Amino acid sequence: MKPKILFVEDDIVLRNNYVEILELYNFTVIPAEDGQEAYEILQHENVDVIVSDIRMPRMNGLAFLKTVRSESKWEDLPFILLSAHAENVDYENGIKSGANDYLTKPIRGKDLVNAIQNVLP
Amino acid sequence: MESRKNPSSESIRLSVLKELRILDTPPEQDFDDIVTLASQITGASIALVSLMDTDRQWFKAKIGIDFCEVSKNDSFCQYLVREEKTINVVDATQDERFSNNPFVVGPPYVRFYTGVPIASVDGLILGSVCVLDPSPIVLSEKQVKSLEILARQAESLINKKSALIKSESILSTYVNNTLDSIILIDLDKNIIDCNKVFIERVRKILNKELIKGDTVYNYTPLSIHPIIDESIQKAFSGQEVKLEIFIPFPNFPNWYKTLLIPIKNSYEEITGVVITLTNITEQKEYEKQLQSLNRELSFHQTNSPLAVIKWDKGLTVCSWSEQAENIFGWSADEVVGKSINKLNMIFEKDIESVLKNSELMLSGKISRLTSKNRNYTKSGEVIYCNWHNSILIDESGDIISILSLVENITEVITLTKDLESKKSNYEALINSSDEMVWSIDDQYNFLTLNQATTRQSEIIFGKKDIKEGEQFFDMPMPDCRKNFFKDLFDRVLLGEGISTDLPSFNVNDNFNNLLFDAHLNPIVKKGKIVGVAVSLRNITEKRAAELKLLESEANLKAIFETTDTGYILINNELRVVAFNKVASDISGQNFFNADKIPEIDTPILDYFPEERREILKNTMLQVLNGRRVEYEISFPQPNGTTNWYFVRLYPIQPESKIKYGLVMTLSDISRQKLSEKELEASKERFTLAVRGSSDGIWDWDIARNAIYFSPRFREMLGFSPEVFNEETYINSSGFNYIFDSTHEDDLESLIFAINEHFEYKKPFQHECRFKTKKGDYPWFLIRGQATWDSNQKPVRMAGSLTDITQRKLAEEKLRQSEKMFSDLAKNAPGVVFQLCAEPDGSSYFSYISDKGKGILDIPINDKNWQLNNRIPPKDIATFNHSISKAFSTKSDWNYEGEIILPNGTRMWFQGLASPIVKSNKLIYNGIALDITERKIAEEDRKNLRKLELSLAKEKEINILKSRFISLTSHEFRTPITAIVSSTDLLGIYAEHIPDPVLQQKTNDHINKIIVQTDRLTGMLEDILMLEKNVEGKLKVTPQPVNINKFLIDLNNQYYTDRRDKRKLKMYLGNEYREIITDPSLLIHIVSNLVNNAFKYSLGAAEPELTLSYQPDTFSISIKDYGIGIPLADQEHLFETFFRANNVMNIEGTGLGLAITKEFTEKLGGNISFTSQQDKGSIFVIQFPYRI
């Protein structure tokens, strides 16, 4: 079974690129435009890891993370935040909210794959 | 044709028809209905309403045919016009009139024809209602009747139209030929229609074209809109509105008679208003002139007891009132146009003085003159007249005529004389009569008898020498007398007191020739009536005199009642003897005290207010001594008008030494006064009234030594106008009244001034203090002008009195403030000055304080000194502008600038001055102060402020820059990420390139992209970091740090896996110290320095890191063996974006060391280095153990 990744990113170029990279690295990837869509997908899809951008319309990454963590069935679901902000404050915020990792853009494909593999159960 | 009426009647018929204007008009439903009905009633296929024109029959309505007219000769109806009655033809072929008709022989082959004539109101046949059909039809009587009814219907329709057209044509004739403007407006007040006159008026007056449909307000001045609105609304409510309105069109202000008539439709609803405007300006002008003419003389000409005579400048009679005819006998026709010399109406001895007076008046020296003259009437009789003469002045102030008001006083004088003689007789009789006093007891016995009784006892009682104790009824009196007395005695004994005349008994004794009046009173002793006291006065003579007097009084009365003058006869005891109705009316109205009406034999003084009685009594006593007194008196009325009376007090028999009494006459001269006021209005404009009501007016008749004071004058001296005593008019002291009130310090100069005026005609204008009723002495300005007679003797002087207390006070205040000013000026700092502005704009210093002169080094008394010379040239324009601006606006002057002192140094000064206007000059009083210190302080402050401003600006720019940097460094990440991820994908796909060379080349380029994007990211991070620090957003979070472990972790993380295989040599020692610092910043500092050490020593020995501890600090030194830093660049090394000139080929941003230094300092440390080019560098960072 390939690990199933929910990849949440509002920028279409980035989303398509990383989906392509991850699939090349042999993951099953479900793309989502924003937290709202991702949350809806989560209702009927079981995923192994969530990778989510932070700044997004409708529901942003942090809000999505909090929503996910608020449900007990997902409290241990691996969650990686991707951000354009490279500051400590953002990092700490993300980890505090329950993210398993916090990556700063630009992120190399290899580094993202490493991070995902680190959080996979 | 043979029976045709004469051509003239045909032409009348045609003209009537044409006037209807019905020919060739479009079809109308009313007429169409008629033909439809006609066809239906008769069953004929053709029905027509036709009119017979000159040579055609025209159809107003038709059914059954297509054409609308036929030639007259072919028409059936031509016969109707001739025969003037219904024509009924069953079969036209059988009728010789129609059998050859083309419509019978040809289509539509008419057989049946019935025509009913339509007549005009005058009975002329205009046309017909007719029915035709190709088949013969026999009409019943009913059908014919119906047809006739229809014809009448058509007739009335046509004639109604005719009436309408006629009235319309009359209307339009009027509308277009009138001079009035006629406007029709609708309910929205828009002009629907108007006549040509109005269009032309609009063109001429408003200089624009009338637009139908416009609101009427567009053609009227704004000021009259409310009245127009009101009038139109009234008209809308159904009223006809008439008004005269003044419309102030620019250049064409005119009066208009305006008529607004509502127009109604047939349902009686108002649909609009017709406005007619008639220009009545000329009429108004005429009315106005007439009015003013009428006003001039109106009061004289109606009901006036005074004759009115108007003379021109040549003393020719211009007008002569009815009353003048009554007095003098000549009618206006006989005298108008005649010169005074030819009239023969002036008593010879008076001619000279009359002419002299006229001359005085015409010269303008006297405007009013009252004289008493003897005159001749037409019949040669001598009469006494009072002449009140005034001059009339035209608009330009020229004398145009003399107006004389003449009163005939002959009767008064004559009657007065008559009365005196009667009066003296009767007084004598009264004084010489004796009184009989006697009494009886209750038994009618004589108790007492006085001498007069004894002496005359025979007359009363019929017996001489009556003694006390004799029985009254034993006297030889006639029984009737005894009964008379008994009756009286008995009544008195019962307690009554009786006064009665004794009847004249018709018996043969002397008694009935004498008259007595009797007074009977009870004699009371110890509460009981014990007798009767009787006094008898022989009033025979008195009665006779009284009867005579009554007789003369009756005459007097008859005369008195015909005059308008009130007369009161007063005897030498100052009691009222007689008065006429006018006097009682006047007194009832307002003349005397309270509402008392005089009664005979009461003291005249009772009718005057108590406070006046003493003065009036003295006056009257003087009159009794032969003086004559005249004065005018005014009584303000509650309705705002003033009643004026001319009062005369004349002695009776002035030549005699016996004081008989006096006559008081009262003439109502209110109207005369009013008229005089009007007549003098123009004159007063030029003289005293110019000064308005704030001045008091006085008028001193020097000849009579009487002085008149206007109400305002009296008010000024503290008497309210209402309670003025008329006695003041007749103040015998004349001008002494004023002298008496003059302040003793001013008296001498006042008298001197008047004498100067009298003697040398020097203008009389004097300031002095007069005592007011309050007892104080306010300041007044008294002015006057005398008139002189031919002997240069002053006869009259009139003038004004102005209260100048305020001015005097102001002068005093001014003096005080001037004193204050000079005191201030002496002691004030700086330069105190007074600057005079000349009307031509130039100015000079009229005053500069001594201190100021010292400061400015001005020669004393140099009047031409100008400040301009001391103003620095660059400021001159500004300085002059500030002064001229203040001058032109008469506003305060405020100027700050430099001045060059005599020693050449410059001083800042502030000049402040306020204007006053003094005798047409603009004067500025002000001060100039040394403000050099303030200016310096201000300059400093200004500079500081500038600095602050520029700092703030810089800060603002910095914030903008920070925001920009923060935004860009974040935003750039997304595209960089896209590049990075795409490059990764390229790298993955490159693995599948079969050609190894190509694959290698591709990978090389992919690596280059990766390296460059890394570099870009690094730069972004550096910039962001630096900016955060600059912005102060970089927070230092101290925490305990194990420095050894920190450095080892750092090394493991970054420097153990370098591509060139070099390592970092670490010399950490064995010592361990607790350090409190911010590790996240420290990691930046150390890694940056280590990165540099690697970067700038490629190919050289490995860099070294040494940790060492000092007593208060610890230091980390990083040493490399690389290219070193050129000496020249060393001092700029930590500057942002600075890069040494030997590293241009090595990547870098020039930010790293700047950030390192910033962060080091943030952590309380410092950074230093030593370097030698091509040998290497050592960087040392040193920190406290605890921040």
UniProtKB/TrEMBL annotation, chain A:
InterPro entries, sorted: Bact_response_regulator, CheY-like_superfamily, Sig_transdc_resp-reg_receiver
Modified residues (4-aspartylphosphate): D53
Keywords: Phosphoprotein
Domain named Response regulatory: residues: 4-120
Stored Gene3D superfamilies: 3.40.50.2300
Pfam families: Response_reg (PF00072)
Matching PANTHER family: RESPONSE REGULATORY DOMAIN-CONTAINING PROTEIN, STRESS RESPONSE REGULATOR PROTEIN 1
Record-given protein name: Response regulator
TrEMBL record, chain B:
Domain named PAS: residues: 320-365, 682-761
Annotated InterPro entries: GAF, GAF-like_dom_sf, HATPase_C_sf, HATPase_dom, His_kinase_dom, HisK_dim/P_dom, HisK_dim/P_sf, PAC
SUPFAM superfamilies in alphabetical order: ATPase domain of HSP90 chaperone/DNA topoisomerase II/histidine kinase, GAF domain-like, Homodimeric domain of signal transducing histidine kinase, PYP-like sensor domain (PAS domain)
Gene3D superfamilies: 1.10.287.130, 3.30.450.40, Histidine kinase-like ATPase, C-terminal domain, PAS domain
Top-rank lineage group of the source organism: Bacteria
Top EC class for this record: transferase
Name of the protein described by the UniProt record: histidine kinase
Reactions that this protein is recorded to catalyse: ATP + protein L-histidine = ADP + protein N-phospho-L-histidine
EC assignment: 2.7.13.3
Boundaries of every Histidine kinase domain copy: 967-1187
Natural source organism: Arcicella rigui
PAC domain ranges (all copies): 239-292, 629-681, 764-816, 893-943
Keywords: Kinase, Phosphoprotein, Transferase
